[in-house]
Amino acid sequence: MLIHGFGSGSGHWRHNAIPLAEAGWCVFALDLIGFGASSQPGGRLDNRLWARQLDRFLAEVVQQPAVLVGHSLGGLVVLSCAVFFPRLVRAVVAAPLPDPTLLMPVPRRRPPWRRRLQRWLVQGLCRLLPLELLVPLLAHSPLLDLGIQSAYTAAVIGDRDLHRLISRPARRATAARSLRAMSIGMALRPRAATAPELLQRLQQPLLLIWGERDRLVPLRVAESIRQLRPDTPVAVLSHLGHCPHDEQPDPFHRVLIPWLASLPADRAGAAT
Question: What pLDDT is stored for residue 166 in this prediction?
């Protein structure tokens, strides 16, 4: 089960689905709510809701336990699904796993006034930002290509398929509303929905895959995860950036496919 990252969609696995299928796995992917071709609602969107969406897809479509593979935000989503809805999750792969709380932990106890102040500030700032103007402007400008390029070490400006994958959802009329919902939802998550807490509760096998030159989620985040779970394997892919699965699929597959094959029989019997 392949889960995309922020600003992307299921099409970002364009170079991975066929090799995984050729390795004997049944492959699924979906667009998370707010991304790709999925709806772009308002309100609040966070990794708990996306984990629930993924769980319902597993129950209604896949109908058997699966290995969840997530890129970036998708890594946090698959981790959340494994913890909150473990019944249909065999193992988890995060490539990579971002969460600001891995470097700036949320205090275990905060006074009620501080929580109320944070909620007021986050909601106020997100509603004041003119996202309805900024998002279309970014989606139709060269700045979008520069943003995409920041996730890669190889040159990708001129990759029309990649540009289209990112720009089409951003150009929809509801994109700004959905981005505001994500910003509020992720900023106001409870501590139990942050990566440090989820990692401590995770029972399934976990693999981390990281691009050595990831500028968006630097390798030191993986070191923080290893402090929480010292037994977690971390595969570092040399000379690659934030999207190793798309930038150079072969090294990514050389790590992922043998790890899938090495899962214990009682966990590896499900399709991905």
Answer: 96
